[in-house]
Specification:
This protein is of the alpha+beta class. It has helices at about 1-15, 60-65, 75, 95-110; strands spanning about 20-25, 30-35, 40-50, 55-60, 80, 85-90. It has a six-stranded antiparallel sheet with strand order 1-2-3-4-6-5.
């Protein structure tokens, strides 16, 4: 799982300059935005974490605006668990490339929504 985690972590880490990294450990990479909600908590952006038998990628934009999922391939959508989580058990370079582009799309959505600075 460590190899899968490292590859998926890299997708979020490439965008770290736009985010606030809350956790960066051997098993979890967790990012928020700097935007504070009314409850004084930052808006969650995404995370990658190792679970018992898979690595999960959470991207909150999927939950906030489900329409941004419409251009994802059926193969990547098969990896979805719930509204904002993708699960992987092995390296899948083509899907990881697609997920990389999707992370950029999520950043764009957050920027358009005012959660990230232009």
């Amino acid at each position: 799982m460590q190899e899968v985690f490292t590859a998926l972590r890299a997708l979020l880490a490439k965008q770290a300059q736009h985010l606030v990294v809350k956790t960066d450990s051997a098993t979890e990479y967790y990012c928020n935005t700097a935007f504070m909600q009314k409850n004084k908590k930052p808006v969650f952006f995404g995370a990658v974490s190792i679970k018992k038998s898979y690595v999960s990628v959470h991207l909150m934009a999927s939950y906030l605006e489900p329409k941004i999922l419409q251009d994802l391939s059926p193969a990547l959508l098969k990896r979805m668990q719930g509204k904002a989580c993708f699960n992987f058990k092995k390296l899948e370079p083509e899907l990881f490339d697609e997920l990389d582009a999707y992370v950029v799309q999520c950043l764009y959505y957050y920027r358009q929504s005012g959660y990230l600075k232009p």
